[in-house]
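Fold this sequence, please.
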Amino acid sequence: MENNSTPPILSSALLREGMHSIPNPLTSLKKGLVMVTRTVGALTALALAACTAVSPLANAQDDSFAQGNGESHGRPVKVMIISMFGPEGQVWLDKLGPWQDIPVAGLSPDYPNIHCNRQDICVMTTGMGHTNAAASTMALAFSSRFDLRHTYFMVAGIAGIDPIQGTVGSAAWAKYLVDFGIQWEIDGREIPPGWNTGYLGINTKSPSEKPPLDYRTEVFQLNTRLADAAFALSRNVVLSDNAQAQAARAKYSYAPANRAPTVIQCDTLAGDTWWSGTKLGERARDWTKILTDGKGVYCTTQQEDNSTYEALKRAASVHRVDLNRVAVLRAGSDFDRPYDGQTSADNLLNYAGQGGFTIALENLYRAGNPLVQDIVSHWGEWRNGVPHR
């Protein structure tokens, strides 16, 4: 910072010169210049000493991990795992370290760092719900700290699951992301005759009509080649299970709800409202069919994925990321509807008793890690896109 005041040492010198009864201007000037020179020299020495003191610390930060490729794009990342809350991220942090913590402005204050290892695998946690997911993903995607142009993104989180498609502990790779929240709603107790739900698409006349996609975030189709590759790599993985989950499954009279968990392919529905119920579950199935023109199959329900994808889409519009490199994996932690004889309220309020939470977290890793490791181990094949095998 520039300082226009007289240096303290020079002020003292001039004061001492002023104490002579007959001042000599030339002598005073010479002595003042000497003191200025000494002061500048002292300040320069201090600055050099400060640089010497700081340099070892700066170098120490670079010892274990590369900080970038020397260009302005930041640190390259091969795989970015996107989790939504602490336990989802922790399952990766516990298994793939050691990690370097990299703070990024704009991330959730609860999860302010991106964690990266020596394989160029990184883990971020967005915070739960649409708002947190969008804000954190945007902060990452537009950060100058990372080069994400060739990065594969894998959203990996737990979810509710449809018992006719999977069971607690199942891990599902999606091809479609559908937003359940962008609908009109009429109180279910007041629906018109002939309707089976109070939900309908915005600016439609009945629950079965496909709405105009005015929001542009209602439905997204992922790269099917990447989804198929992820499924092929993980389909034979043995998933985690426990006695509590087995007991919960046994209450359902049909498969696959009452069978052991497996890796499956089916689609995911996003909405901030955490719901439970047979009728709502039927609407989830129907809504997925409507928005995907009959191609999608609903199986998991969560709160974030359409907003996460939209944030990446905006980054892709300015060539910061590649949308063909986005995969979504959701593992069932609880059933989205009750078994016969159970109330929807009991299914929701006692969801933790289904035993799916811990196995779903573990199965995110078991089902997702084969894709992660194949990408980083065969980067030459993956760098320019999903390989043909």
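DSSP finds eleven helices and 16 strands in the chain. The first strand starts at residue 75 and ends at 76.
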